[in-house]
């Protein structure tokens, strides 16, 4: 493939990653804040969750983990997404999404957070392969 064609293919993948990230994160944070009972449907059967150093493996454990969290309110301030190169994921359409913002759990004050998702296409749905969430508690 000529260099110009490769560049265009990559630009298209980047554009798709950005559009997908906007729609996916809107759905994700609406679900985690208002429809927590439906979180498992966003994860692959063998999805991984790392939440402030705690882990859950598989969508059933992940669902249980979310059910035990206090109610939340997320506000997104930054969103970035990029495609994962074909060789690394056996040509499976996969994106890395990075999010930051603030979150309130229960009646606690708002705190900054960072979250990184790896999502992949499964049929006509996007599913979370891995999810890493971190609260940012102060400066080190």
UniProtKB/TrEMBL annotation:
PROSITE patterns reported for this sequence: NTF2_DOMAIN
What SUPFAM superfamilies does UniProt report for this protein, alphabetically?
NTF2-like
The UniProt keyword set, sorted, is: Cytoplasm, Nucleus, Protein transport, Transport
What InterPro entries is this protein classified in?
A: NTF2, NTF2-like_dom_sf, NTF2_dom, Nuclear_transport_factor_2_euk
Alphabetical GO biological process terms: mRNA transport; nucleocytoplasmic transport; protein transport
The NTF2 domain extends over 20-135
Where found?
Answer: Cytoplasm; Nucleus
Query: What GO terms fall under cellular component here?
Result: cytoplasm; nucleus
Work out whether the entry's keyword set contains Cytoplasm. Answer: yes
Q: Sum up the protein's function in the record's words.
A: Has a role in nuclear-cytoplasmic transport of proteins and mRNAs.
| Protein name, UniProt field | NTF2-related export protein
Q: Which organism is it from?
A: Anopheles atroparvus
